[in-house]
Design brief:
By secondary structure, the protein is mainly β. The chain has a single domain, classed as Porin. 8% of the residues lie in helices and 44% in strands. It is built from five helices and 23 strands. Strand 10 and strand 11 form a beta hairpin. The chain is globular. It starts with a helix and ends with a strand.
């Protein structure tokens, strides 16, 4: 069954490598799938050149997800073929605009009755489109914003991609997460970056339309309504349209954050993210880099996050899935996370030990794809910010190209031990996770990249609930295959 899919992906890759310009270094993509523009449109003195001097950026992409489910899941696979075209105009008197159209076409037809089985790779198609129109493909006008730039400050208004502590594009599937509102980035102060944002809508990766930022659609007249609101896996299902509307709460997100590197080898960050009348969080982080004469670099970091309950706990409860059994205060979401890590970097290799401790309060609300434990203990497709969760992670990276062994190859492996609260049936069972990733680039064609990710998840032990049932077994194996070509 997988052979035709892989052949189709290979055909797309062959076309890209043979027919597209190999020297078009307009963009670069990192291992986390974040695309950065190297060549940018110029500033122009005439309005008519606003369009003629703009640049069209393109990306061909394929993603295949193979899921070998454990005893409590159904095995399945999913493939997405597509990419995006993004046009950036030239800049006239500080103004410019950007429009980006993204698409994902799924060659393996998904049946409506099987939608509940797709917990892995579902972001290659729209569940709502399959359920209501029997349509596998999805297309979204993901970016569409006006920009004004002066000196080292830029204001964006419209639909855009955003990278902050709690909000991210998380572009690891076919179409990234996008946000609608206003975003101001300031770099005028020495060694300092400041970001402000006001978000009134967002679009998740498997959605075609924009929707509310912190509201789960519970419309009883539409059996598929949940897929038109924020239905992310980390969404609080107790914060529903009907409950928020009854209280007159119009959910919006405010972001204020900054980063400073004025002190040698030191980085300091803070971030404040708030959904007024519901929940807010404050993050403080610091890191320092020691340089040893032998070439070894040691980089410790510590992060503290405090979540403030501004009314969401009374509305939805302390647990994201509305099962508050085992919570000390079932109607309060106040909580904190203490995370730490230490990196050892030497030549082409690095090794990290990371740890996170979510205190025993309410669950952490983070349905905007910037995982609050990311960079410390968060694992591939993992969600380890339920209350009273402790996670330890070991990570090893090696750049075979930098070491002079294999051109263009970078590998990474992680081993994570997740310790959830056994007395909370609304959380998952403990799990041990091993992942192994390979990234391949090509010297003769730097715009082409392949990536393979594997994950092996095993339940640590069975956990019995008070009613005699067991927590869901998280065991599974998974493989991700991705191709990217930028032009």
């Amino acid at each position: 069954m997988f052979i035709p899919i892989l052949l189709l992906a290979a055909t797309l890759t062959t076309f890209a490598s043979k027919h597209l310009k190999k020297d078009s270094a307009k963009q670069r993509i990192n291992c986390n799938m974040t695309v950065k523009n190297i060549k940018r449109p110029p500033r122009v003195d005439e309005f008519q050149k606003l369009f003629s001097e703009g640049i069209l950026y393109g990306r061909l992409r394929s993603n295949t997800f193979i899921f070998d489910g454990g005893p409590d899941d159904v095995s399945h696979y999913s493939t997405g073929l597509g990419g995006n075209l993004t046009y950036k105009s030239a800049r006239y008197k500080g103004f410019s605009f950007t429009t980006g159209l993204y698409t994902s076409q799924n060659p393996n037809h998904v049946k409506r009755e099987d939608l509940g089985d797709y917990r892995y790779g579902k972001d290659t198609f729209s569940r709502y489109a399959v359920a209501t129109q029997d349509r596998d493909g999805m297309t979204a006008l993901t970016e569409n914003y006006l920009s004004y730039k002066k000196s080292r400050a830029e204001l964006k208004v419209g639909r855009f991609l955003l990278e902050s502590y709690m909000l991210k594009s998380h572009d690891t599937k076919m179409i990234p997460v996008a946000f609608e509102g206003a975003n101001l980035r300031i770099k005028t102060l020495p060694n300092t970056k400041i970001q402000l944002a006001y978000i009134n809508k967002m679009k998740l990766r498997d959605h075609e339309g924009f929707h509310r930022v912190l509201a789960y659609n519970d419309d009883t007249t539409n059996p598929y309504a949940q897929w038109t609101g924020n239905d992310d896996g980390a969404m609080h299902r107790g914060l529903t349209y009907s409950k928020l509307d009854a209280k007159g709460i119009d959910d919006r997100i405010i972001v204020v954050e900054g980063k400073n590197s004025s002190i040698d080898n030191t980085s300091l960050q803070f971030s404040y993210t708030a959904v007024p009348q519901l929940v807010s969080s404050l993050m403080l982080e610091g890191s320092y880099k020691f340089k040893i004469d032998s070439g070894l670099k040691i980089k410790p970091a510590i992060r503290y996050t405090h979540q403030f309950d501004d009314g969401a706990g009374v509305i939805g409860g302390a647990n994201l899935k509305a099962n508050t059994t085992g919570y000390k205060n079932p109607n309060n979401l106040e909580n904190a996370i203490l995370s730490s890590r230490i990196d050892f970097i030497y030549g082409a290799g690095s090794f990290r030990v990371g740890y996170s401790d979510v205190k025993d309060g309410g669950d952490i609300i983070a349905p905007w794809h910037a995982q609050p434990t990311g960079g410390y203990s968060r694992q591939m497709s993992g969600m380890n910010w339920y209350a009273n969760t402790k996670t330890t992670m070991f990570r090893a990276d090696y750049d075979l190209a930098k070491a002079g062994l294999v051109d263009g190859v970078h590998i990474m492996s992680r081993y994570t031990m997740q310790d959830f609260d056994d007395n909370k049936p609304g959380t998952t069972a403990d799990a041990n996770i091993f992942t192994f990733d390979i990234v391949k680039r090509f010297k003769e064609n730097p715009n082409l990249m392949f990536k393979m990710r594997t994950a092996f998840v095993r339940e640590d032990h069975k956990v019995a609930n008070l009613d005699g049932t067991f927590k869901k077994d998280p065991t599974y194996n998974a493989v991700r295959l991705e191709m990217n070509y930028l032009f």
